Amino acid sequence: MNSSCPARPGEPVRAAPSFRQWRLSSRLVFWSALLFLVCLACIHAMTMWGVPFSGLDGRVVQLRAGMFLQLQLIADLHKEQLESWLDDKQKDVAVIARTPWLQTLLAQPFTPLVERQIHEHLQIIDDIYPEFDHVELVDLRRKTIVSSTDSSSRSLDGDGFIECSLLTDTGYLGRVQARSEDNRPLFRIGQLIRDRAGQKMALLVAAVSPESLLRQLLDTGNRLGDSGELVLVTEEVKLINQLKHLLPDGRRPEPLSYRVAGRPAILAAQGHEGIMESLDYRGVPVVAAFRHLRLSPEWGMGLVVKVDQEELFAPLHREMVAALWADLVGLLVLLFLSLLMIRRQTRVLTWLSDTAARLAEQDLSCRTGIQGSDEVGILGRTLDQMAERIQSAMQELRQEAAQHQHTALELAQINAELRDFAYWGDKADMTGFR
To answer: How far apart are CA 99 and CA 124, in angstroms?
Structure first.
């Protein structure tokens, strides 16, 4: 509801005063606040984004560069950990394959007793190495496979992993596969076993579960905040580890069945490495460092370390909010102090104006009484001196006028006496004549 009173019929409507019609104090306060805000905006702009062509980086550039460096260091560290862990497992399998008991058991005729002994030894190996999901021994001569999880042997069917493992004596790391029971990821490591004559005799296969390593890698602590996570994908960009966040539809993606759609994961799976700002599998803006792990000539994995941009720039946002509150308090203090100072100065100017108006009304006894060495003090003393001179001049004029009036009265009196004297003289002459 409009609180202003409507204009009466025939009464002119008063327009709002323009900026030039504002009081001097209002204009001074306005320009002071505007100058303060412009200076603050320039300072904040230089603080946040730096000074162009000066080499001085702002907080945005510094924070961005710091987080980029941290993400790349974490990605390099996790890549090294993964490669080192897989290399250690290959060495473990190679050490087991060189144990004399395998040579002894494989040299014996394949009987149910020998098969049971191989099964028991494989179970012992499975118990010693907790990372091994199961261990298998492929007898190349008899075309059979004995497993630590199955006491009976089975025939050797066509398996590309076995064919690749037979091509090298240094061990072969196969592509990640899903465990049949629960689709957990497994790495198969094959180590060729030769007899004393150098003939291919058997192949030791260990299915290694990366769960312990993944738990260690995924436990990023405070390095990546609440939103940061690590993502491992196959060459087909299929997920290897469990994701920290849900998909946009609320589902929990299943490893080795869900294909990650984020560009960093795709680039990492294709063999590229770097860091970039992109959208992740949730469609959320992130900063991601991606690496490629070339685990064999045939295949590799992609690794992505990412953190949400919202959390990345959260410290900067908090700084900006705190700065805005500080600016608001500073502006209010500035307005208060400016208002006090300007009112004090304009009060003096008002007093000077009133004094000048009274002098214009011929009140020559009025004085400003302003003291000081600044411009206002000089102006006040000058006005007082001018009033003093005018008052002195007026007093002198009044005295001269009074003196002139007194002289005129004396002349008038003398004239009157002369007229009387002339009158009585003429009268006396006329009397004597008679």
So the answer is: 13
